[in-house]
Amino acid sequence: MINKGALCAGIAVVDSVVRPFVASPKMGTVALVEEIGLYPGGNPVNTSIDMARLGSPVAIAVAVGRDGMGKFLIDQLSLSGVDTRPMFVSNKFSTGASVALVRHDGERGFIHTPGANKIFSDRHIPDTILKRNKWLHLSGFFLMPALDGTPSSRCLMRATKLGLTTSLDVCWDPSGKWRGIFGVLRHVDWFMPSYGEAVAIFKVKNPDQIAVEAFRLGVRRGIILKMGSTGSRIYLADGTRGIVPPLKVKAVDATGAGDAYNAGFISASLRGLGPLDSARYGSVTGALAVSGMGGAGNIRSWGQVRALAGRVRVVATSVKRVRV
Q1: pTM here?
Q2: Mean pLDDT in the chain?
Q3: Residue-wise pLDDT tens digits, 262-290
Q4: Fold for domain 6-22+36-318?
Q5: Where are the domains positioned within the chain?
Q6: pLDDT at 324
């Protein structure tokens, strides 16, 4: 029984997903694809919808415009069972939007316009909202100029003071600078980037060394590296390393896979499961997201994920000097 749930906060967009994308057509011509779909998008949007499907109490704090796309996001979140009361609706900025270009193998690239995400800051996440929850998940770092860096630190510190567990995920930094995150990590319980993002941030490729660097900068409880088709790794502050294999599925659309992993991990943690077990659930929800279109893919229920979690066996070992 979960008494309090999670607040997911950060970037919100409407995703136009194009599949399969091979190459851009020449100007003045037309290229045919199998599918173009409109889906709720943005890291916290995906994670909150996935958590709601898993039966976890979840609310969302994001900024959207007072336009058709903003209404679409609010409606889709509400229909999924997400508490949308913390959302901010801007009269000045439009809703953020992305075009996701998905290849045959499920990998994708994005074209993005930030819209109202440009103004979303820690002032949109007041203590009154934080107090209703047990977990704060910030995601979309590097795409929110008014929240990234010091404002994120302020928000995370307030959440910690109120007794919430905190987690942080990032987006690809289109500027290529990867700045502003190092001072934030000491306020984070769980850091949850993709492997590629972590390599770009820390400038090292060895996953164990990435963990060393993240702990050195102050991450408190653990680091999760999501490594796509090869699975994931979880590093705990006590020196435990868990190698988490992927649940094998046919890849259709990798959009939101990392966000779905986060949803499985957080939902399992809120139910009292330990970190290694929670990583198994993250592996399953990530795989189910990849096996269907949009951020939620084929995620249906907690019972569905629980039944599949037994197929994922985490190999736990010790890593010397993970915490430095």
Answers
A1: 0.91
A2: 92
A3: 999 999 999 999 999 999 999 999 999 87
A4: UDP-N-acetylmuramoyl-L-alanine:D-glutamate ligase (3.40.1190)
A5: 6-22+36-318
A6: 46
